[in-house]
Amino acid sequence: GVEVGPQPQGVVRADTLDKMRKIVKHGLDFVQLFNEGREFPPCTIEVFKIMEKVDYPRNKNDEVIAIIHPKLQDQDWQPLNNGDPLFLTLDGEVISYAGDCTVYPTFINEAAYYEKKQAFVKTVKMKLTAKQIRSSVL
């Protein structure tokens, strides 16, 4: 499957649809070239590995007591460092990130994850290396 976003539920955005079409076309081009026997050299790509789902701060009654900080909103895939603001309490207090490494949050404040108690997901950036490949069916 291909998921391209973020975009609100029930909304079709032209820019997001265009990105999805390009991704699917690249995938189909790869399959065609692979099936034709094209050899693909080794490569290294950067990926983001999910580390942890982070919930909104809650009180003893399990009620949300803070919202996503304005500086974090719409910053998916951007580095989040120790001391950067995460949440803003309803009383105006800033809750900062207290981590030992830089992370890359995603799915920040997504409506679809609110009921799942997920304010965002912490990811870490890493590199993966793929060996060369060629179809053996020729």
From TrEMBL:
InterPro entries per the UniProt record, alphabetical: AspA/AstE_fam, Aste_AspA_hybrid_dom
Gene3D superfamilies per record: Zn peptidases
Pfam families given in the database record: AstE_AspA_hybrid
Source organism per UniProt: Urocolius indicus
GO molecular function: hydrolase activity, acting on carbon-nitrogen (but not peptide) bonds, in linear amides
Residue span, AstE/AspA barrel-sandwich hybrid domain: 44-123
PANTHER family reported for this sequence: ASPARTOACYLASE
Protein's name according to its UniProt entry: ACY2 Aspartoacylase
A cellular component annotation (GO) from this entry: cytosol
